Amino acid sequence: MKSVVVGTESRSGSKSKRFGFGYEKKSANRPSIQTARAEFLSLILELRPTVVSNLFCSAYPPFTQMLAKNEAVVASLCESLESEIPVEAHILRQPDYIRERAIKKLLPNWRSLQQRDDAESLQRALERWAQDHNLTTDWCLDHALEFLRKFESLEYKDLAFSLLPDAHFVTDLIRRAWQSASVERHCAGLLTQFHSNSEVEDRGLFSFTFNYETLTFNVTGPFYKSVPSFKEEVERSFVALGGPSIRGARKALRYLQTAYLDDVERVMKELGLEEPPVRWASGDHFEWLLNYQLPPCRGCREIGREFGKDEATVREGIQDIATIIGLRLRPADRGRPKGIQDGRPRHRAARA
């Protein structure tokens, strides 16, 4: 396919982001992990857009060829899905939406693709792309498939292809498809969190209510927020309503809040939920990982010089973010980084 280059957007100063708010069920795809992965994927589009362009140019042709071979299967899946949707749900009955769901049933993830005998070309294209860009972890390949599905479902792709060799429209659709796939991942994490919160709500613990004399307020529990954030919000509500001036109110608040959090902890254990480790991941750490992992790969020392950090700090930040998102790091470079000279020159011993 004709080469398409996705442009890079400017990036403002980095910000610290926290991944892991509230309670969630322990799994490889827990909400905090999905949120962090979505952040990393968005940064790829921003700072390494050729990664996305290369994926499209190498994998979209075999993807469409594979769909053409299975058009009858896709059509059958579309009929089945449409029959399950209520007639009055007009938005859900849109053909493009139904077709996208059908394709996802046909190719739900990377592992299912590996088991197909009619998708060797697509498998090889995705494997080469993953190896070339050091994105060989399964979830990266799952995202690559999601990107291809999103692009296939875009409304104006045929018009964009008709405008080639002017690639601006195709480029815009490529960006849109990658962003849509990233948002899908983030929303999946939020949906998982919502289901967990619904279970908590059924137990009557989703919010904390404080009633003492004339003082009354309600605060959502530590489910979309950390426990310290919950306590801060309770304190703000207490102070804003004049709680400190009411005799005995502070003692009552302390007792009821402790009892509430004890109940929350008990229910969390019963439901198999836990508060994820508190990790503050700065935007710089994601950029360090991207510069280290994706070609042109750079070493920790070189990255540290650019960001004004020592090599050990950069290496620790890279390893921490890679652990959060579950990314297999490439092998470390051996030898001295390019362009680096020793602080003191070495002198070869003279031969006798």
Labels describing this entry:
352 residues, mainly alpha, two-stranded antiparallel ribbon, 6 strands
How would you sum up this structure, described in words?
There is one protein chain. Helix content is about 60%, strand content about 5%. With about 350 residues, it is mostly helical. The chain has a two-stranded antiparallel ribbon with strand order 1-6. Strands 2-5 form a two-stranded antiparallel ribbon. A two-stranded antiparallel ribbon has the order 3-4. A hairpin with a 2-residue loop joins strand 3 and strand 4. It is globular and about 75 Å long. The protein starts with 15 loop residues before the first strand and ends in a 27-residue tail after the last helix. About 5% of the residues have low confidence.
Per DSSP, the total helix count is: 14
CA-to-CA gap between the ends?
Answer: 64 Å
Quaternary organisation of the protein chains: single chain
Report the sheet with the most strands, covering strand number, pairing sense and barrel closure: 2 strands, antiparallel
Strand order of the biggest β-sheet: 1-6
Strand fraction equals 5-15%
Q: For the residues shown, what is the average pLDDT?
A: 85
Give the radius of gyration: 26 Å
- Which structural class fits the helix and strand makeup? mainly alpha
State the share of residues found in helices, binned by percent. 55-70%
Which residues sit in consecutive blocks of at least 5 with pLDDT less than 50?
7-14, 337-345
N-to-C SSE string, H for helix and E for strand: EEHHHHHHHHHEEHHEEHHH
Number of strands: 6
The global form is globular
